[in-house]
Amino acid sequence: MQIVACRSGVAPGRHSEDHSGVRARGATKMETTGRDTLAGAGCPRDVEVPSSAGESGGPPGFASLPRPLRASVRTAAALCTAVALVHVVMVFLFVAPSNAVSQRYGKYINAWIYPLFEQNWRLFAPDPQSVTQQISARTLHTSPEGSREVSDWFDLTAVDDSAVNHNVFPSHTSQNMLRRAWDVYAASHGNDDHSKSERALILQKYLRNIAVNRVPADRHKAFEDIQLRVITRPIAADTSAGRRPSTPTQTRYLPWWKVASDGN
Predict the structure, then answer these.
(1) How far does the chain reach from its first CA to its final CA, in angstroms?
(2) Closest Cα partner for 213 from 162, 256, 159?
(3) For 56-112, what is each residue's pLDDT tens digit?
(4) Rounded to an integer, what distance in angstroms lies between the CA atom of residue 15 and that of residue 13?
(5) Is-contact 221 247, C-beta < 8 A?
(6) CA distance 143 to 146
(7) For the whole prediction, is pTM greater than 0.90?
């Protein structure tokens, strides 16, 4: 609580006397409002002095919270701070030149970064695409009688395109998630679709999960397998500028991937 003394018109020579008198008579503390209300000589009757926010060790109103809730808030803040620091360190070690620390803990750094926090330098050295990919998915369901039901192809790329077209602020998910998932999968698997490393297996599951989550639920109530088809179409080249003709359209079928009975 703050104690404030108000005085007005103190005559010379009586500084100490009046000052002590004011402190003695002072201002009465009003307990009913939880704040200090001062009433005394030279002070307005309804002057309220709020308590300092720092006295409770947190923002205003923090001290009024129940003790278990205050402890939970402090714990959550400490955990968020710790995770943020770990993330900054991991990203720094990932983008920094190779060193003893990054070489020793490379496995853990890559597990933290890929596939959600991948870093690249394309902002400074852009690599515009010369082709477009149309990614579609279909599912396979085996009935209790043993019959196999294959759904029609569902165009995943068209869904993203419809969310981007005529949208002033399209989401990053619609623009890049599926496209980047395919790019990193193709770069890590080549043409044989075999995962040759732990990272490649993670990227395969990442692409598969995106497709599983975007297939409409009305295709099958449950399905056990999913397959992707990628149609690569070249962007028309400007032949008048002396560039070589574009490569032909290519269609690539990925293998059937097993998923859980509920499609996850």
Answers:
(1) 58
(2) 159
(3) 556 667 778 888 888 898 999 999 999 999 999 999 999 888 899 989 998 899 889
(4) 6
(5) no
(6) 5
(7) no
